[in-house]
Amino acid sequence: MKRATVLLLVALVALAVPAPRAAAASPADWRAEVDALVEAAMEANAVPGVAVAVVRGSDVLHVRGYGTAGGDRGVSPDTPFLAASLSKSFTATAVLQLADEGRVELDAPVRRYLPGFTTADADRSGRITVRQLLNHTSGMADTGFAERTLPQPDSVPERVASLRAARLVSDPGEEFHYFNPNYAVLARIVEVVSGRPFDEYLSTRVLDPLGMTATTSVVTTGQLDERAPDRARGHVVAFGRAFGHDEPAGYLAGSGGVVTSASDMANLLRMQLDEGLFEGRRLLSAEAVALLHTPASGSDYAMGWVAREGEPDWLEHTGVLTTAYAEQVLVPATGVGVVVLTNSNHALSGMAGLAHRIASTVQGGQLQGGGPGLRVIGYSLLAVTVLAAGLRSWRLARIRRWRPGNRRSRRRLPRWTRWPLWSVWTLWMLAPVAVLAALPRLTTAFSDRVFGYRQLFWAMPDVFVALAVAALTGVSLLVARGVVLLRMRRGSRS
Question: What is the distance of C-alpha 322 from the center of its chain?
Fold first, then answer.
């Protein structure tokens, strides 16, 4: 039965992976191809709403909303979405503006601008520079300060002050570790140097000059309803369905606090591609833009942008929150830029890489499938969970027949009671328990990030439920068989 189940799942996944389609034949055709690609990805991954913008140089080629923003609201090009870590490109832009003006020196220590800045290692903290914060090479990391699992601050100064407890995991400038508070410290530098709150600086120096009228920024999720009441409703996905859910309470400024639309993001991409110019107005020097796009030595991370591995001319960044996912891509050689904003998320979502596939399509490449999608994965998980629970419940019912004194108990003990089989079977039953217990550490091992059980649950609730059901039924079956085995052995001796 287990073999049949595995074969069935393999067949479902194979059928769900779409075959590559031919490249677009003309500019008019690629727009239809992009629409079809987005709509197919939404259907496959149970995504309620998506907004997309495509630019080439200073021209907006395509901007459109798909699906729903919550309730009966359709998504439009101006619907605000949580941009998550795409916000880092805004923060980096703000810092480089101040550097252009000579008010911030990138290789100066952070303490020049924030004299009280420190971590648990006061001496090495004094060597952390502004550039290292931008490149995520400050030496701070989730493994030295698990900020997502700790009480969340309410202001930018509070976030910086909380880093007094952060343990450096490497010398400043030596290693790359993606760490959201790096950009919170940058936000505080912007505040101190400019003399105005970070969100106000972004509004007056970045958003307004770019005509980003539907964009705002928040310090915490608690400000979302006040500052972005018309934003797309967030969702989590479980067992192939999207469920409306509020973004969990947390700190966002500097690293993830921008709420924006596809139309507005098109303007940011145009400025990045036009070497700091937007409709004749210069926001950044050409040298500053080049610096934003240049990775640190030994890393693929630049400043709010990542150089795609194997494709040095491609720049991208993703944004991940509990209820939202976003991507942006720049191809400076061809002048193409793409942004994708969505109002749902899942750790296994096939939406990952959609902006890259759109950019390839715009440039005449082949459309590639995005994998099986969350619906197939979710339905398969549901089927396996129900089948496993049913099968183990049936086995539990059968075990009750094995009692001392009845006719069955006087027979030879069944094969599963023999030690080699019993030990292997016990390990198999306890495997889901071990995976659940080790999940935070496994996540850290693969991603260098630290998340608590709450964050991991909302990132993949169906996987958690499947593991929990497997763990509960497995332990129940193990205990029941152990009790019966003891009774049988006592009965056989008597």
Answer: 8
Q: From CA 106, how far away is CA 109, in angstroms rounded?
A: 8
Distance CA 139, CA 166 (A): 10
Distances in whole angstroms, Cα of residue 6 to Cα of each of 1, 2, 3, 245, 467: 9, 6, 5, 33, 17
203 DSSP 8-state letter:
I
The CA distance from 349 to 237, in Å, is: 9
Locate 378 and state its tokens. 């979710």
CB 140 within 8 A of CB 168: yes
Strand partners, 320: 325
Instruction: Note down pLDDT in tens along the chain; length 494 residues.
Output: 333 333 333 333 333 434 333 333 356 688 999 999 999 999 999 999 999 999 999 999 999 999 999 988 999 999 999 999 999 999 999 999 999 999 999 999 999 999 999 999 999 999 999 999 999 999 999 999 999 999 999 999 999 999 999 999 999 999 999 999 999 999 999 999 999 999 999 999 999 999 999 999 999 999 999 999 999 999 999 999 999 999 999 999 999 999 999 999 999 999 999 999 999 999 999 999 999 999 999 899 999 999 986 666 899 999 999 999 999 999 999 999 999 999 999 999 999 999 999 999 999 876 666 677 899 999 999 999 999 888 888 877 777 665 555 555 445 555 555 566 667 778 888 899 999 999 999 999 999 999 999 999 999 999 999 999 999 998 888 888 777 767 666 655 55
Cβ atoms of 343 and 233 within 8 Å: the answer is yes
β-strands 325-331, 315-320 pairing: antiparallel
Q: Which two tokens stand for residue 110?
A: 């952070």
From first CA to last CA, the distance across the chain in angstroms is 37
CB 222 within 8 Å of CB 249: yes
Residue 480 CA neighbour count, 13 Å, CB half: 18
